[in-house]
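User: quick one, sequence for these C-alpha cells?
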C-alpha cells in the first residue's frame, strides 16, 4: 500500500486526491494521511500565481514534517480575474 500525504483536512480534497491516484494507478492501493498546514498566502488567493504558490508551500511543508510517504499533495483554491 502506498501512502499519500495530503496537506489538507478538507474531505473533498482528500477524496479527490484518492480518486485521482486510483484512476492513474488502478492496480495500486493507497492510504491517505492528512495534515493541516498554512499555505503562507492570503485566505483567498487572487491570482493563479498565488494559488500555485499556496499549493507548493503546503506540499513542501508536508514533505518536511512527514518525510516517510510515497507521495505528497498540496491543493489550493483561488480566483483569477480576467476581462472575459
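Assistant:
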Amino acid at each position: 500500500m502506498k501512502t499519500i500525504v495530503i496537506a489538507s483536512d478538507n474531505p473533498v480534497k482528500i477524496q479527490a486526491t484518492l480518486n485521482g491516484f486510483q484512476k492513474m494507478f488502478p492496480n495500486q492501493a493507497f492510504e491517505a494521511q492528512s495534515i493541516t498546514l498554512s499555505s503562507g498566502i492570503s485566505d483567498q488567493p487572487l491570482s493563479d500565481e498565488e494559488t500555485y504558490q499556496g499549493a507548493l508551500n503546503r506540499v513542501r511543508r508536508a514533505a518536511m514534517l512527514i518525510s516517510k510517504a510515497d507521495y505528497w499533495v498540496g491543493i489550493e483554491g483561488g480566483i483569477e480575474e480576467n476581462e472575459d
